[in-house]
Structures
1.
Amino acid sequence: REAPVAPQLRHLAFNTQPLAARAAIVAAGPLINLLLAVVLYALVNWSGVQQPRAILASPVPDSIAERAGLVGGERVLRIALGEQPPVAVASFDELRWQLAQGALKGQDVRLELGNGSGAVTRDVTLGLAGQRANEVDAALFRRIGIVGPMTRPELGEILPDGAAEAAGLRKGDRVLKLGDASVVDGQQLRELIRASGSDSAMPTRTWLVERDGRQLELRVTPRQVQEGDRTIGRIGAFVGGAPEMVTVRYGPIEGLVQAFERTWEVATLTLRMIGRMIVGEASLKNLNGPLTIADYAGKSASLGMTQYLLFLALISVSLGVLNLLPLPVLDGGHLMYYLWEAVTGRGVSEAWLERLQRGGVAVLLLMMGIALYNDLARILG
């Protein structure tokens, strides 16, 4: 279209191809992105990945999980969304993914709980039907009440100039009691520390900790910090030991099927979130740009090849979905033109092509501007 073509080569020019061929050529790019995601997910499934076992920590106070009767320490064997049949839960990461799907779709979630031998001991239903979520973030999982796997109530790295350092706490200390409350896991300890910030005067409490086989009493005064519109307590330390891990690995056929399913789920979730941002049901802060992508690429690479492949798969799905959006200048916009041509029997006029291209560029520039603003706001705090 943009340069002279010799008559003997004109049959090879793109704009002289049949409609089906042009549509296939344009769709090939996004479809290859989606296919690459399938391949990457399959490689991870076949090689195996270490993930936390699906053992629940203490639920967030006054959350859906607590009201449903969960107390912490339960092992989740299977999960069912709405009226769908239950599926096996391979890890805590899979559990979080399914919970997010249930919340976004506004469906109740049924958990089949059991013991280490795989026998189901009881069912628990989480009432998510009335909690339709617009975003998947930390606040969503706090409302559900399941924010992390079961961990030991131990302290990790102690940050300098924090309340933990000032009180004499050390890395590896196991917290047995905080004031009068017995501590059973890392999640409960985090909640007790956070809740202490709601007092107008930050209280000093006696902590009973176990260190090198000895029990010590230390006086700890958490510091108040703002989290949104709430005041919470912080001690300046990583709270919670390492969770129990499990290797999640699938066979050749099952791993490939799981890869297709995960690609489809991520693609539909991406489309759903884009739709909610357009109608104002989800915040535009969910739109991230190159700075955030580069940051997370570096972080995922530092965690190992498996996490990096999972990140690349997510990026590939995002590229495929975004390119298929019916926006002029994107592949999806060209497919929209071809749909018009298929229905009317004639292509879009040059005048309208120019107008639509300009509009598409304006929309893309707006999206890029918002994404870059979000990146800078996140980095600058």
2.
Amino acid sequence: PALSNGELRRVLIAEALLQKPRLIILDDPFAGLDTDARIRLSALLEELIERGIVLVVVVRRPEEIPTSTTHLLLVENGHVALQGP
């Protein structure tokens, strides 16, 4: 059976974690996920941050920003609109 969008994302993140990275870049990780999968992914991202892994998370909607985020970069029309803690 094929993996769902959420399952595939979890597998890809798990594969990346096996490499013991210090930095993970995720581009729109919540795209196509249902509510339950979004909640689980959000919890996983928070856990990774707590473990000291630096995350660069590109999101389209402000509600998808992990609560443990320390810095933001807002890009509008290809230009930096805001940045900072």
